[in-house]
Amino acid sequence: MSKVTSATSGCRLAASWLVGVGMLVATTAHGQTVTVDSIPGTLVRFELVHVPGGAVRLPGQTDSVAVKSFWVGRTEVLWDAYDAFTLSRKPSPRYSPAGADAVAGPSKPYGNPDYGFGHRGFPVISVTRAAAEAFCAWLSAVTGKRYRLPTDAEWQRAADLAATASPPVPIDEFAWHAGNANGTTRPGGSRGADRLGTSDLFGNVAEWVTTGDGQLVVRGGSWRDPIEQVGPASRRKQQSSWNERDPQIPKSNWWLSDGPFVGFRIVREP
Amino acid sequence: MTNFFDPNRRNFVKASVGAAAALSRAKPAAALPWASSATLRIGLIGCGGRGTGAAHDCLRGNEGVRLVAIGDIFADRVASCRENLAKVAAEDPAIAAKISLDEGHTFVGFDAYQRVIDSGVDVVILATAPGFRPRHLEAAIASGKHVFMEKPVAVDPTGVRSVMASADLAQKKGLAIVAGTQRRHDPAYRATIERIRQGAIGEVVGGQVYWNQGGLWHAARKPEWSDMEWQIRNWLYFAWLSGDHVVEQHIHNLDVANWVMGGHPVKAVGTGGRQWRTGPEFGHIFDHFSVHLEYPNGGRVASMCRQIDGCEDLVAERFQGTKGATDPSGSITGVSPFTYQGAKPNPYLQEHIDLIASIRAGTPLNEGRQVAESTLTAIMVREAAYTGQMISWADLVNSPQDLTPPGVGQLGPLAVPPVPMPGRTKVDRRFGEG
Predict the structure, then answer these.
(1) What band does B36 get if pLDDT is binned at 50, 70 and 90?
(2) Residue B281 has what DSSP assignment?
(3) What is the CATH code of the structural domain delimited by B33-184+348-370?
(4) pLDDT value, residue A99
(5) Among A107, A155, A269, B417, whose CB has the most other CB atoms within 10 angstroms?
(6) Is residue A16 situated within a structural domain?
């Protein structure tokens, strides 16, 4: 995460430079605070953007829910961080009736779950929600901080702030979607920042969230979706087609054989 | 994208994609009892995750089929297979209606395969470790059963010759053999390679095939396991069981190479080694291979495979011709550009649909020789690296190499064969010889 791409905005340049001199907080162009965390024993760093609390209404709902403030990953989780998780643990069996757990790491995939789209600097794909949650549990354990997946409402809060602009900014300016991604994932943050100071909330990869009723839901849309299906209202439940080609029974707890558009973003509790 | 992770898949369709030109079909057999709507009884031999998945694919892909017998060397595998199928059935009444398993039709032991075959089935799914495949296929064809068999179908030339003989016998008997080289049932590959074979990239002069990924699973040894049981439960890491990862996994890409080149290679030379995965839990196989194959027209195909963590992964096939180039999973560039945009059914499902449809039509598919040749191609790559010598097809296909250990029918002591050493290892070797 220390690499600064040409698409990086001025605020992130500042943040990256400050990391270099040991300061871990900066502000985005729109006033949100950015902090930098790292994974001990590795060179992996990642940025988190502060999201102030507020009320949100989920797609299709009439009632608002209150969301407390939290930190959200500036980009989706990249392979760099996920590989640190994978390489630090004993691999799990491909399937265990107990599900994915963070004591062991991901099971060994048969094939390449990154599809050859790109690895270093690219968002994690093909992961089940259980795998994403196991990553968060592991990250919390090795850092002593509290990381987890965003709730549906937290993701919505970040998305509302990211998309709010007057005059409105076309989503195309900060989203990788089927019309511009050319059939693959793109490096995390390479499309530029939204109004919250995060990147890729909309498009690139769809992001796992947790829901009150246990449903498996991704938000935001992905590189595979047309632009009209990418944005703050994008919300999809997992389909059986997402692991259709896993040729084994039972199917993997860790990998979605047909989920090259499914990744995640972390939140950190204050 | 050529592995089972497929980014472009669309809704699968059940329509048969028909037989590839390269396939042979058995002569129509007269008055097949199952050519009508009669139920085809399915037996599963090898109850691991893939075998269970293959049985599931057969059941969900077809009507008029019923799983009636299963068998495995180990009782816990039979039990977990039943349990996992019961879970699937609980969620899917259509699958539940196609499973009739009782205690009298679940078999355990080295002879479980024969007992499944003898239990009144019409079709058997062969999904044990590959080293057992030639014997299981021979028994199935001898008993008049149609076969779905996972790849690879042998681990040594002796086994390949046996599979070829069984395939020929199946042809005479009007029995179907479909193999788990599922790219052959993927319409994107089929449409692309059909164009290549018709000259869309001119003469194919070369290519590159890859299966580079990290390491795979292994099962920690339990004190009560004999050497034989430990090796079979960790079959990936013993050449007599898996053929090495180049045969077990890279065969998919080498099968595509033979398909594109229009036949098998004539020579192989290359290198490989065991550099990273060196612990005793990983048996004696290599963790990387890089071998060049020469085809009858002089075309060269570079074959590379690796199972080492933390490296760049790549699973792909590419070929170049005098008039263009191709990724045979769906695109051609050059004078006749092509991008596959049709339906993308799940090939793991499609292979079972095609198998059953061919049986019902009385024109059974027979992929036996084709997959035997692809298996021997992968063995050729392995032997080029293991021995350090130039390997010719003509010599290899007749080699007496036989990796089957003595006493394979019972659990007991079994030494781990030595790690092959280029310059010393001979092609014509028996189990345990370096």
Answers:
(1) low
(2) G
(3) 3.40.50.720
(4) 75
(5) A155
(6) no
Average confidence (pLDDT) over B193-213: 97
What pTM does this model have? 0.88
Residues of chain B with CATH 3.40.50.720: 33-184+348-370
Q: Please check whether residue A19 lies inside any domain of the structure.
A: no
pLDDT digits (tens, 9 = 90+) for B65-76: 999 999 999 999
When CB atoms are compared, the residue of A91, A94, A113 closest to B5 is: A113
Residue of B3, B5, B50, B213 for testing the chain A interface, max A β-carbons within 10 Å: B5
Instruction: For A167-196, write each residue's pLDDT tens digit.
Output: 778 899 999 999 999 999 999 999 989 999
| Neighboring chain B residues of A246 at a CB cutoff of 8 Å | 4, 53
Specify if A10 maps to a domain.
no
**A135 min Cα distance to partner chain B (Å):** 18
Q: Is residue A33 part of a domain?
A: no
Provide the chain A residues 79-118 that lie in CB contact (below 8 A) with chain B. 83, 87, 91, 93-95, 107-117
Q: Which CATH number fits domain B200-343+375-397: 3.90.850.10, 3.60.110.10, 3.30.930.10, 3.30.360.10?
A: 3.30.360.10
- pLDDT per residue as tens digits for the range B390-430: 999 999 999 999 999 988 989 999 999 999 999 999 999 99
